[in-house]
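Sharing a chain and its predicted structure for anyone who wants a worked example. Both blocks are below, sequence first, tokens second.
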Amino acid sequence: DTGKVCDPTRFRQIVESLIYLTITRSDLSYPVGVISQFMARPTKEHLPCAKHVLRYISGTKDRGLLYRTSTTEQLVGYTDADWAGNAANRRSTSRYAVSLGSATIAWSSKYRGAAVAKCKAIWLKQLLKDLQEEVSDPTTIYCHNLSSIQLAKNPVFHARTKHIEVHYHFVRERVLSGEVELVYVPTS
């Protein structure tokens, strides 16, 4: 906040272009989300950060999403969250990616719970059903948080978690109905 303000038009043009690129470059979601927080009043410290992302893109032009024909059309989700990992504001960041066969078709990185991944997977399952491509198997969500998995399976913990009641019930109902399956995957 104390730095000199840079040319906001130039900074916004760079960040808006980067936001557009996140459509096909999921690896850009987090850094673009961070730098886009400063679009209202960018300083001379923020512009080099945006240019750093541009240099990263220049060095990784050959990367992107690859969609292959697949015989299995199972939805699989992956979630990850850090605990107060943002050094600036101590916020936790949750990320998810959902794949259909070999193709990643939805992803996000934001300050919210991992229940968003389950919501997206269920929405995608309904979309596929509307397109006559019904997926009958439960959507597997790989999660490194054992507490989240136990909470979805065991209602005893409910009294201690009233602050997450809406997401808790949503995930728990989907696990009980067999629509979603939570599987532990170690962070390493």
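Comments welcome. Strands lie at 75-81, 94-100, 103-110, 139-143, 180-184.
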